[in-house]
Amino acid sequence: FRYRNNFHLKQAHGNPRIKIQNLSVGFSNRLLLDNLKTEILNQENVLISGENGSGKSTLLKSIAGLQKYEGKIKRYGRLSLAFQNSSDSFLKTTVDEEIQLSKKKAFNHYLDDQRQIERWLKKLSLDKLLESSVYTLSGGEQKKLQILLLVIQAPEIVLLDEPFSGLDKKSVLNLISLLQESRSTKIFISHQLFGLDKIISSAYLIKNKKLIKMENIS
Length: 218
What we know:
Helix content: 25-40%
Number of helices: 5
CATH superfamily: P-loop containing nucleotide triphosphate hydrolases
Radius of gyration: 17 Å
Order of helices and strands: EEEEHEEHHHEHEEEE
Strand content: 25-35%
CATH topology: Rossmann fold
Structural class: alpha/beta
Strand order of the largest sheet: 6-7-8-4-9-10
Mean pLDDT: 91
Shape: globular
């Protein structure tokens, strides 16, 4: 397994947000993840890579409490998971209703100024879609809205499963800039590595059921 980018990882410092101890997950007598151990720090931005079927999404679901596992996962703070299918995240009908709900539900207030939100709506080309149904948006528009809503809600931990799939390079860079404004600890699963050097502080590879910390991505 080879990465197409080559960048050194930034150092993160701070208190733990997630502690994983002796984590194992299996399906139908097949062990998928075996005895994983790691700590993810406050405001750390983590990339998890690996072959298809290696257990990346399973690990995210375990951290989110949506997957049975053996071992311990300690989470320090509130957590949100950005599903691969963006529409699964929506609770309201229109774009504006989703934004207003996220403002009401916000855990922290990193992006609560209406002018800031309007600036990002315009930058993400969502400003003309406020009265549109979220279910009539294109897949790319749903992805952009999903991540904007997460940044407005501002939980302490955000899990992002393929957040950039199907997006052009300009949209990817805009979303990375938006995510850089968030102080949440973020864990990314992404086959799309373009632009991630601007935000990633740690990277792991899942291989042979183990979680391997990497010094750089090359």
